[in-house]
Amino acid sequence: MCIVQVKSNPSRFILNYPVLCLGVCIIITIVKLWLVEGQTLFAIGGGDHDERLFLNLASNLLKGDWLGQYNRLTLVKGCFYPIWIAFAFVSDVPLFLAQHLLYLSACSLLVVALSPRLKSPAILALIYLILLFNPMEYGILRVLREGIYPALTLLVIAGALGIVFRWDHPLRCLLRWSMLLGCALAAFLLTREEGVWIAPVVLMFVGLAAHRIWKTPMPGRLLRLLLCCILPFGVCGAALSAVSAMNWFHYGIFTTVESKSRDFLAAYGALTRVKHANWSASVPVPREARFRIYSASPVFSELEPFLEGDIGKAWAMVGGGSEDIRGGWFMWALRDAVEAAGHCSSGAAAASYYRSLAKDVNSACSEGRLECGPERASMMPPFRAEHVRPLARAFLSGVTYLVGFRDFDPNPPKSLGNDDLLVLFRDLTRERLSPATSGIVHYTGWVFRPSSPVRLSVWTSDDVPANARITNKPSPDVRQMLEAEGINTTYAHRARFEITAHDCGPTCFIQVETYDGQLIKRISLNDGVTSLKGPELYFNLDSRTEANFLPQQERLDRFKTGALSLIGKTYQTLAPALLILALAIYAITLLDVLRTGKSAATFLINTALLLTILGRVFILALIETTSFNAISVIYFSAAYPLLLLFILMAPIDLWGRLQAPVAERNKILSRIEIRLALIIIFLMLCLSSAGVSPKLLDRYLLNNNFQIPTNPQSDFNAAAYYNRGVYNCKLGQYAQAISYFDKAIEINPEYADAYKDRGASYGKLRSYTQAISDFDSSIKINPAYAIAYYDRGVVYDILGNNSQAISDFDRAIEINPEYSDAFYNRGFAHDRLGEHRQAISDFDRAIEINPEYADAYNGRGLTYGQLGDHRQAISDLDRAIEINPEYAMAYYNRAVVYGMLGDHSHEIEDLQKAAGLASQNPKK
Fold this sequence. Notes:
By secondary structure, the protein is mostly helical. The protein has 38 helices and eight strands. The strands form two sheets. The chain has a five-stranded antiparallel β-sheet with strand order 3-4-1-8-7, with no helix packed on it. A three-stranded antiparallel β-sheet has the order 2-5-6, with no helix packed on it. The protein is globular.
């Protein structure tokens, strides 16, 4: 693509210099591809809104059914990543390899785009290699669109730079780069929805090329302007229109994604314009506002049973556990409720409902039935002065996170989900998955029933048949042993079994049935030897061993990921210092531009890169402030290559200026004292801002308080990994915590605390099957572990298995009769079963143990209210509020009881108080 030839001196090299640099780049590229081949895919089987969504859409594309049958998720995210998955599958290329190839192609095209300006092959090779080993490119090991987002970002930059540096080249050359920019921009905008952050760099680059063309008299100037300024955006617009047309043809709605459609934005904006009684930065439509909208809008009231029912409660729990639904999840709750209300038969039907909803709520606002702000059609909540301070903190936190390459880890956690959930990942990605809970496990033992022959099957804890092979073996030793005990051994001639189970987990069950299908017994295949001794069934589990058929490959994979980890740590160490140096150099260059009035193209490129990076940080900081936790590797993925490019290009710009004639160079070097002073001030500001970052402190604590000892298999080492996991739990980083608990358990398989806390982490991620499995293991190791019984009971309670929850709480109380939390939760479980008197008894005992237990008073008051004893209910709720004046739920429950008594003035007063407290502190 119009590469500028660089002259070399053949007398100095056997191979000419450009070819030598190219050869080095090719060799190192092969090494990089070899290293990343050792990584495995972290699959989350239940990721319906992320991984499974993309795979399902790709599966429909492969079937020729566009994006499949319409539902609430069909058009919620851009379609390019599913298209990419389908393309990689058809090309017979594993998904990760396809993504790496796309990224190295983007790096190559970027270097080619820069070649007319940077004529040194060594500098071009350096830029390529630094970008190639960007650690965050191989640090995302899930089926997420961020796997290609960095590559698409670089392709957009490459296309724009190609135009900037080739505006005066032959038209055919300019056409190629314009087409590249248009296609890359279309793919970029069809991948994620918030593509506006790339606008500064694209507009500045295209504007620079247009300015140069306009100012230079040359034939075909208008045609060149057309190719530079119109064609890329025309190609992009055509691609977006084509996707919109496909969606209109299949679903009746002309849009790329519904979250950008006029009707949906109008409906969302109408709901968020309603003013709140007590404002919260992260809650766009609080519960009290929803109830006022239900009363004023018949269209919105259709969603009340769902937003205030299980759908709303589930999304509120995901967002932090309060009754209010935080901004990052309200969109999902709204869409789920619209589907549950029957308005998602097609895209046109959903759009019609959103249109009616916007009209209805806006009418209520204009008629004064609702107190509202200005009419709006946006998912961004109305900005208030109270946003400024948290936004500034989030922006600073985002900068330090980005610069420090935080949370880089080339080792994936264990995949989540049983084999049925993970088969789609294996099928469409062609990738090796990170081992699930147990991988391949062999079981041996024997089972026998005196009265009839039996057959065996293996099931997971989800009541799904496991992927297992069962072989029955002759058992003369078993017959001899049983005959010695005087037992009838007619059916004991093939009692021995061997089972090979794939991705079944430690909570697999062996199901023993008669040949006519009658269930005899279901037995857990936990670690260790388990036995049953009649009279109906005799069973013995002799061994449980995890298969490890590929030790050499595993050793090689560990070496590869270790090398990738070392490279990533090098970036983490050097990037902050190099960025400070690059910013200081940029400041010097800026001073020179302001003094001389001359700005080269490289300076404008660096300015555009810096503005784009800061724009990305600002957008994510705004999302962090108003919606959900957006300061993470996933959302920053596209900014890392731009950061590296800025670090490299700033010194190159200054070096080019220093190559100016001597007289001009003297001007550049004048006033050096002032510049040094400005640099020192700038460095102090950078270092002080990094020093006050709480996330930087978190990193320090993780890296220094829990150092891993040198002995890799010591129990102390297991404890260090465990402590790291506990600390990650405190930070809310549950997936990272699980990876540390995995290592602790790998070193010490009898680490009951690690199993228990890993189970709690799985519970926070809503992976309840894995959570129960870990609690089972913890209890098996320590049968008197009251907390493990309690935590397992809580999970069973969440799953609606109240009887099993009560059983676990019983056991926890039996071990620790003063366990007030177990009494409290058992009380709620009894209450859900309608056993109100038993519930009150448990709440009484919890209060007896802890007289300041506000939750127990709240629970008892709620139960008394259900029994019709309203005065006692109010008395208990009063006491809960007396203990904790910020207890929003107690105010809400007391309001409900006042409503039952007809005391509406107190009811309204408590509802307003509850809404205000909940918005101020969602966890209450």
